[in-house]
Design a protein that fits this description.
By secondary structure, the protein is α+β, with helices and mostly antiparallel strands. It is 39% helix and 8% strand. Strands 2-1-3-5-4 form a five-stranded antiparallel beta sheet, with no helix packed on it. The protein is globular and about 55 Å long.
Length: 209
Amino acid sequence: MARYTGPACKLCRREGTKLFLKGTRCLTEKCAVERRPYAPGQHGQSSGRRRKASDYQRQLREKQKVKRIYGLSERQFRNIFNRVLKEPGVTGEALLVALESRLDNLVYRMGFAVSRRQARQLVGHGHWLVNGRRVDIPSYQVRSDDVITIRPNSAAGDVVRSATELTAVVPPWLQADHDALTAKVLRLPERGEITTPVQEQLIVELYSK
């Protein structure tokens, strides 16, 4: 499936919640969810009068929401799910940890980008090093003790520094130096530390059908 290139705000309105796809705009009065709190399309304003969603609809919407938050295609998302399904432990929690461990997500979480979309672009253009090696794969899975630094003389330096000025909190499982533009993965996150608004059990139930 091709990557979605349409209006990001339409995705937030479709899910009925802020997915923070446009960085700082999502925090202002210009946010589309604030201005038009109903689904997009001709019948969006009347959607609230529709019948109650079925279990399948709730499960599907939850999966779609998570895909859109992390910017994944259906194939990418399904591949991650199939991989964590083989791992020991709780599948839903393992899924979220795998999503949070993507390099593009870490660049965003550490405050080096204003959105995951921007972070994915920065990684794809080769602006970041992991343990001294250039990595341009957004889906690259980081591990504990990995050190992430911006490439020397990177043309994206000013963009990254501008993003750090808007970052108030870095997750406790990460350590970031916004002056040196370096960071370290202290450990992988625990479920309680993942702030993404998702009910992962609904996704597990969907794929278990």
